Amino acid sequence: MTTSQTQSLIQVNAGTVLIREGELSRKMFIIKTGKVRVFKNYMNQRITLAILGEGEVFGELSFFDAEKRSASVEALTNITALIVDGDAASEQIAALPDWVVPIFRTVFYRFREADAKITVLQSMNEFQKKSFKTDTVGQTIYVELLRFLKTLEMICERAGKGGIAPASALVMQELDEVLGKRFIGLKVFWRLLKEYDIMDHHLEEKEGKISLNKKSMEAWKTYLASEVATERYLVLGHPAIALLRRIVGLINSAHGEKSDTQGNRVKIKFDDIRVDTLPLHEDAIAELTGKKLLTVVDNSFLIDSDAICNLYLFQSILKNFDHTIIALD
Asked: CA–CA separation, 51 vs 107, rounded Å?
């Protein structure tokens, strides 16, 4: 059988559903251009499992094991993809060594199990956020992070008297003991302190000592305390953070067009940051404008540059903990 009989190139528009959960189909897709969203319907919710782009593959499970589709796939943008037909390629698959296909089936079975568990976890996350008047996930993250920072600061101040930087291993050990039962990861917290320059990562890595950036610590504590005091507990979605990343990138490169307003207000044109190429950009804009974090005027964002840069920094840190507090008993 020739390659042309098993493969074909397609072009589809954004919004097209290429695979439907539960259907029987053995077509595998290789994305040439564009992006797709992989999702499952669970407890009357659409749960996003992954966003895939150029060079990535979907539909490979059913291609090999001929089982029903485990998830749906929708084009987020206009896409070009290569389709490989599993039914047409059955002779080529059968020609593989006897030991290969059973291994594929075992591996793919485990993938299907993993997808099911991820769906349950993400559904629990959404359920927690939608079912309570207070966003308990966001509240837990904010309260715990504020407790972590205050405890760390207290330990470092006590251990570092006389201007001597305390040993990081001892600080970490005491932090672990003092914090006791916790709902966010201490190792993740420690890593982010270094990544976001709240801690001097060079000193910690070279000499194993702690030196905190007091200005960053104070700004971070002030932000967390403000959210706790107002009970807002803002935790933005991934699309909103991705949009903020583009806005902040443009601000930092000094290409933003200054508006006629006072202070740090700047105008960022949609075209300057290619908003339409960002997956789920409409959801991102709706979330950020709905929470009054930015304003849209004439296909542009009107923003406070300092406030947006700080918001992006803090929300990027917070997002690292959004999945760590859910556990199955």
From this structure: 22
- Rounded mean pLDDT of the chain? 81
Alpha carbon distances (Å) from 183 to 68, 140, 145, 150, 326? 37, 8, 10, 16, 8
Per the structure, the complete domain to which residue 175 belongs is given by 136-230
Range with top average pLDDT, 1-10, 50-59, 184-193: 184-193
What domain count does the chain have? 3
Each residue's pLDDT tens digit, 125-178: 554 455 444 457 788 899 999 999 999 998 888 877 666 788 999 999 999 998
Q: Provide the 10 A C-beta neighbour count for residue 66.
A: 15
Same-domain pairing of 50 and 161? no
Q: Interhelix angle for 238-252 vs 305-319, to 10°?
A: 140
Place of tokens 């097209």: 16
Residue 323 lies in a domain: no
Q: Which of 215, 217, 49, 223 is nearest to 141 (CA)?
A: 223
**Which CATH number belongs to the domain containing residue 270 in this structure?**
1.10.10
Contacts of 60 (CB under 8 A, 6+ apart): 28, 108
Furthest C-alpha separation in the chain: 79
Helices (H), 70-213: 90-94, 100-131, 136-159, 168-179, 186-195, 201-207
Question: Does any domain span residue 225?
Answer: yes
Q: State the residue for tokens 């796939």.
A: 73
264: which DSSP letter? T
Q: Which pair of tokens denotes residue 158?
A: 């006590």
